[in-house]
Amino acid sequence: MLKQIFTPFLLSLLFISFANCGPSQETKDLQVKAKQIIGALPAKMPGSENDTEELISLGKKLYFEKKLSLNETQSCNSCHNVEGKAAGVDNLATSPGAFGKNGDRNSPTVLNAGFHFVQFWDGRAADLKAQAKGPILNPVEMAMPSEKEVLKRINEDSDYPGLFAKAFPNEKTPVTYENLAGAIAAFERTFVTSSRFDDFINGDHKSISKEEQEGFKSFLAAGCTSCHSGNLLGGNSYRKIGQVNEYKTGDLGLYNVTKKAEDKFFFKVPSLRNIALTGPYFHDGGVKTLDEAVKKMAFHQLGMDLSNEETQKIVLFLGTLSDKTRVE
Questions:
Q1: pLDDT at position 310 over 50
Q2: Would you say 79 is a known binding-site residue?
Q3: Helices then strands (H, E): number in the chain?
Q4: Residues recognised as catalytic
Q5: Residue 62 and residue 175 in contact, taking contact as beta carbons nearer than 8 Å
Q6: Least C-beta-crowded within 10 Å: which of 40, 43, 273, 313?
Q7: Is residue 13 part of a domain?
């Protein structure tokens, strides 16, 4: 008799327990919004389908190669550190070049860079390959005098000619500056990150906490997605810095490339992926903390004075965008 009474009772408890394990309707709705407005990052970057192991391996060697700087002190990795848990930056406001002079702008992360619609803060390079050509010949950065001198060093090396031949097997003269940049770009296309927020979008309702979900709601409510939308949460448009309230800077941004008056103070909107790991912030590296960056963006771009509480909520959410392999 007791067994007959308790069996339905236990089954009902079990059913309630399982029901409580599932997401609330509010969380489900938020997952739908996240998928619609942001979307998960693809597993591979555009162009990577043509990248061979030999090409990527060559690109990796070149990425860490200090011979690509005049005094052999700098590599791509010097400013865009990807070793260990580093997030593709040097975490400096502006980066010192081969001879110690600092550049004018903050070095952006190389993580996910191949998804961006253009490269550099002012968009002067169309893609990763075009971007890779610039710093090597930049007099402040790696300071090589010419492509010819770069290729001379590569050809004089005991390993590189053979590695280029393997990476570009169908070319009569594989060691070219174009191919060097292409190999570096292929290596950079491997830096696709995966975050807890992607897991949330893909259906794992437990991957971000209730507090972090509240932070995402605050992020949406503040209007941050007017610039930081799409699966990069940015990286897909230009915006004027100081859109509502002036941001004082002597850097004219996109105007330096186009020479159009209407492009003054326009910069590429940075992706917010890995933003908690890549400070300091803004094109000038002038903002040290993420809290300050969020408050300043709200004020200068949206005309809002965010409370400390709302700022902290948004910052908490932004932490869910970090690559899971690079979080301490």
A1: yes
A2: yes
A3: 13, 2
A4: 141
A5: no
A6: 43
A7: no
